[in-house]
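Interim report to the steering committee. The following record documents the input for s-adenosyl-l-methionine-dependent methyltransferases superfamily protein (288 residues).
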Amino acid sequence: MLAWRCKPPAALFPLSIGTFVEHFPFIKPKAFPLYRIKSKSLTTAAAIRTHNSSCFDSFSCRQKQQIRLYVDTLLQWNQKMNLTAVTDVDEVMERHIKDSLAMLPPIQDSYISRSNSSIDSIKLVDVGTGAGLPGLVFAIACPAWKVTLLESMNKRCDFLEHAVSVTGLSNVEVVRGRAENLGQSVTFREKFDVAVARAVAEMRILAEYCLPLVRVGGLFIAAKGHDPQEEVRNAERSLKLMGASVLQLCSVESHSPYGQRTAIICSKDHPTPRKYPRDPGTPAKLPL
């Protein structure tokens, strides 16, 4: 069972949960002869069958199959390009799928409490999605959501487009580009209900990447480690300049060896000034 607790940024109290993710036997690759998983990776499937959880009880057979296909594809492509440092199924489930799914309850609860509109059809952008985490996993878990995967590296976009095709997802768009450019584009600026970022940059940089994409009244969620208080304090000025404020910090504790995760929930209170985001590369070089 997933358990999580939200508190104002001044107080962060972790709450333990039981095992979160049920691991499934994985399909041996058939359709990707150029990217074959080494036999060492395949042997982990036997070890993960002992993990039990109610996490996927609400998933349809199709959704479970999509998770399997995504993880298989990720590991296959990872043999030829740098998508993740994780090299076996067990670690992918623990460190990537589990952590991504743990973000959903805080996002859903925060959005419902802040908005009069339905969460069933929200528009979400995953900034710097990399291998599709957490955005592609969200798209599987919430098929009514419209998910945009924003990635600047062409090779990673090739993988993402392939993964979307393999899993049969129809609610995902892969966008090649930098957040600084898209944040100034009329097509994307303040068009999303929610922006998320995981393992991209420190909070004050993420604020300038993500918040120009979020509509007023929407949310920006950053996935961080167990103690993000100092990082949040350092980002206060950046958040304010972007028209946002910290709404709450939600801690999620797992029994995995990777420990507690924190979802920093920020609300978009005012429009972002037109001068933000600054030119590509400037937010990282000269954080606000």
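Residues 125 and 148 are 5 Å apart (CA to CA). The committee is asked to note this result when reviewing the revised timeline.
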